[in-house]
Specification:
heterodimer; A: alpha/beta; 4-stranded parallel sheet; 9% strand; globular; B: 113 residues; mainly alpha; binds iron/sulfur cluster
Chain lengths: 309, 113
């Protein structure tokens, strides 16, 4: 196990210094949009919250954390807070494979394809698309979260943003539920699949095993919406043991405290999904990263839908 | 810290609503992954939080791990609510952690609640 105090402090220090939990400069993390042909004006702003972009970096850092868990070296994490944010972040950026970064960028590009195919009036402003701070909230550093959330809410408000399209459950929950509660600022928030209108598909019928993330299944009660969007494209969802309100966590949230526990919980979930015999599909970057790390082939909801357009 | 005592009392009151029915135990993914250790389920975590808050237990690494290894997945909560007990387990555990992280931030890993 890693000491939560060290993890919280390392993340909070990075967020304070760089507005990024890993201390990686924004222009390095957020590059996916450059060839996506997006406009800067429209009805709703696409807001990625950086979670998909972060996963390759989380993977790299947890590979190291897993290696040193329960060794005397684990204690060195507490010194990480003394390294200036960007310095440690650039190191992490350098050792994270470009192939992995491209893989996650492609998911966001697929979401853009789906929104365009559904004729959704949306725009993108990369300078306003920032991390929501949700990890700090999850780890119990409420003050750190509220400080960061206020900064972001102010920035969006000043730019006149009212409507946001989100791409992952954690950011969606942060913006929909936590921002109004802790910053007093309320945006109209829609996860992207709520806006899709993709009649027909390409005529092929397929079946997938869709993993409901806890934040859509329980926190936001949205499980049936992505299943309906898939059905519009002729994609069926195999019945998964434990789904909807009773869905089983992928283990990802334990990753920073104990990669071993995250792996054990994830393996149980993977077995439930694999029982269906259908290809496994996730719709949360944390689930995607944690289940893939266990060796399973897991695809993102958006990629499966884009392929069936 | 200001307001900490009041928050502690509020939390203890909420934890006291737990009727120890243990419906939340089996459904917890970390309980299952631990091979059935009750300190890694909602009921166990609520008890640990209670004993830390009222001073029965002294804070140590093993107990920190019990509290922080909770995935905040709310599986226990659905069960608790479906049985009519209605505890906001994740909120209670999250607030317990919050009191804890304030101490951790101020006093380092040897913090006492
Ligand atoms: S289900 Fe609710 S009331 Fe019953 S033991 Fe668990 S937390 Fe307590
Ligand atoms: S929220 Fe925590 S205690 Fe409840 S089921 Fe999930 S891991 Fe277990």
């Amino acid at each position: 196990m890693y000491h939560p105090g060290d993890i919280i402090e390392a993340i909070a220090a990075n967020l304070r210094a760089t507005r990024n939990p890993f201390g990686i400069p924004h222009f390095i993390v957020n590059r996916w949009w450059r060839e996506a042909g997006l406009t800067a004006h429209g009805d709703a702003m696409l807001f990625t919250g950086m979670m998909y972009q972060f996963v390759p970096y989380i993977e790299t850092s947890t590979t190291y954390l897993a290696k040193y868990e329960d060794t005397p070296l684990a204690a060195y994490l507490r010194y990480a807070r003394y390294a200036p944010g960007y310095l440690s972040g650039l190191g992490l950026a350098a050792i994270t494979p470009a192939r992995e970064k491209r893989r996650f960028d492609r998911i966001l590009q697929d979401i853009v394809r789906l929104l365009k195919a559904s004729e959704v009036d949306f725009y993108y402003r990369p300078e306003l698309d920032r991390y929501s701070g949700i990890l700090l909230y999850d780890l119990g550093d409420q003050e750190g979260f509220v400080r960061h959330a206020r900064w972001l809410a102010n920035r969006l408000q000043k730019a006149g943003i009212k409507k946001l399209i989100t791409v992952d459950p954690h950011t969606t929950y942060a913006l929909k539920e936590l921002f109004p509660k802790y910053t007093g600022v309320r945006f109209e928030v829609h996860p992207y699949f709520e806006l899709l209108r993709l009649g027909g598909g390409n005529g092929r019928r397929t079946t997938v095993a869709l993993h409901d993330p806890c934040f859509y299944g329980r926190y936001l009660g949205l499980s049936d919406v992505p299943a309906r969007a898939l059905a519009d494209l002729g994609i069926d969802c195999a019945p998964v043991d434990r789904s909807g309100a009773y869905t089983h966590c992928c283990g990802g949230p334990a990753e920073s405290i104990s990669p071993r526990l995250a792996g054990e919980v994830g393996q149980r979930r993977l077995d439930q999904l694999a029982q269906t015999g259908a290809p496994i599909v996730a719709m949360c970057p944390i689930c995607l990263g944690n289940l893939r790390k266990l060796g399973a082939e897991v695809r993102d909801l958006s990629s499966v839908m884009a392929e069936n357009l | 810290m200001k307001g900490e005592g009041a928050e502690r009392d509020r939390l203890l009151k909420e934890i006291a609503k737990c009727r120890a029915c243990r419906f939340c135990v089996d459904v917890c993914p970390t309980y299952q992954a631990s091979g059935g250790v009750e300190s890694y389920c909602a009921y166990g975590r609520l008890q640990i939080t209670k004993y830390l808050l009222n001073g029965t237990l002294a804070f140590d690494d093993a107990l920190t791990y019990c509290l922080y290894s909770c995935l905040q997945c709310r599986r226990c909560e659905v069960m608790c609510k479906s049985k009519g007990q209605n505890l906001d387990i994740c909120d209670i555990l999250g607030r317990g952690r919050r009191l804890l992280s304030q101490r951790l931030a101020e006093e380092g890993n040897d913090a006492k609640l």
